[in-house]
Specification:
Blueprint lengths: L1 E7 L5 H11 L6 E5 L6 H10 L3 E4 L1 H7 L6 H7 L4 H10 L4 E8 L5 E7 L4
Parallel strand pairs: 1-2, 2-3
Antiparallel strand pairs: 1-5, 4-5
């Protein structure tokens, strides 16, 4: 399973999410993942519909357990996690997942996206 994990501000648009995803240069994703409190965000729902992909909800505990490798001051301040996008991707991809792409930032700085692959893929 190849998962695109997202972290984004409330003001992010579907264009923001698309830009962050495009920056990863990974067209082969099979699922989107985002924090529980962002799962119903219009931008994320639009992207999932556009790509015909399911969205995996990631809890704060799941993000903490994922232990993402990069560190964002914004993510640390607001979520106490180094990278929301990386944590969501890793958590959704399952045990022994590995990052294929570290977090990439949209040009408007409203969204980040990281790609992870599960061990069974």
């Amino acid at each position: 399973m190849i998962v695109a994990g997202f972290g984004f501000r409330g003001e992010a648009t579907v264009t923001s999410l698309r830009a962050a995803l495009a920056a990863t240069r990974r067209p082969d994703i099979e699922m989107l993942a985002a924090p529980t409190d962002k799962i119903l965000a219009q931008a994320l729902q639009e992207l999932a519909l556009e790509l015909s992909l399911p969205i995996q909800e990631i809890s704060d505990d799941m993000m903490q357990a994922a232990n993402p490798p990069t560190q964002s001051k914004h993510s640390l301040a607001h979520r106490n996690i180094g990278s929301v996008a990386e944590a969501c991707a890793l958590a959704a991809a399952g045990p022994q997942a590995k990052l294929l792409t570290n977090r990439k930032i949209s040009s408007d700085h409203m969204a980040t996206c990281a790609i992870a692959m599960g061990a069974l893929t």
